[in-house]
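A reminder from the course coordinator: this example appears on the midterm review sheet, so study it carefully.

Given structure:
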């Protein structure tokens, strides 16, 4: 028991994240990445379910991210953060370009049983049930680059373009690992016009699923370079400011 993370029982800071990784079709990754971010060395999808305190309150969320590469560095491009707290959505988008949108989320662990479920616009598009099977080596400290996109569209009914053109927001994080546990289970991705993971990011490999209790060592958010505004604009017309091809944005076509 001495190796387990310590803290107050029930403290949201002690909740592990459920990380699910798998490979998908390379062409789908290339289609979903915005101009300025290239496909990485592998077509990987990262689904992260979490409960973490934000501004003094627990926030349940699901991050849908894909691997990309920018300036020679590989990192994660989140298509959307489905969260259960309305208060954090608008400030996250406006201040940082973090693509949050509202959803209903269930995530819990009882003994070695783990369950997660996410519903948006009455579609339960993500579900996972599994069992913790072993404790893994925590591994070394590591760094992650995550890219958000900040912009403001032109205030006009008739004109296209931006009042503030799209810019990369580089989110650098450094982590250690307090505890990492392997989870064997079943991932169910259901069809949804709002969160089309099943359609756009189908599973093409075995799952790598685990509970991860992070040690937060560093985090920096930096406004970066502008993107090609004309090439990006079709992506701005989607759900939750997420660049994800949900229903009101219509399908995202491959770039020429």
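Designed residues:
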């Amino acid at each position: 028991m001495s190796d387990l993370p310590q803290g107050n029982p029930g403290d949201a800071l002690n909740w592990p994240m459920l990380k699910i990784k798998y490979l998908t079709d390379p062409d789908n990754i290339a289609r979903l990445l915005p101009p300025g971010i290239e496909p990485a060395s592998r077509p990987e999808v990262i689904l992260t379910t979490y409960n973490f305190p934000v501004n003094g309150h627990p926030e349940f969320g699901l991050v849908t991210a894909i691997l990309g590469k920018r300036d020679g560095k590989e990192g994660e491009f989140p298509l959307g953060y489905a969260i259960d707290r309305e208060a954090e959505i608008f400030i996250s988008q406006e201040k940082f370009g973090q693509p949050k949108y509202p959803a209903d989320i269930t995530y819990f662990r009882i003994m070695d049983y783990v369950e997660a479920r996410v519903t948006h616009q009455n579609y339960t598009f993500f579900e996972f049930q599994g069992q913790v099977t072993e404790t893994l080596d925590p591994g070394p400290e590591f760094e992650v680059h995550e890219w958000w996109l900040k912009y403001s569209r032109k205030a006009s009914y008739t004109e296209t373009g931006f009042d503030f053109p799209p810019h990369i927001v580089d989110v650098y994080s450094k982590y250690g690992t307090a505890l990492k546990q392997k989870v064997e289970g079943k991932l169910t991705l259901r069809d949804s016009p709002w969160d089309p993971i099943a359609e756009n990011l189908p599973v093409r490999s075995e799952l790598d699923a685990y509970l991860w209790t992070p040690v937060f060592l560093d985090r920096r958010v930096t406004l970066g370079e502008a993107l090609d505004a004309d090439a990006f604009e079709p992506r701005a017309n989607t759900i939750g400011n997420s660049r994800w091809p949900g229903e009101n944005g219509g399908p995202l076509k491959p770039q020429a």
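Confidence is low (pLDDT under 50) at residues 248-256. The helical segments are 26-32, 86-96, 197-200, 229-232.
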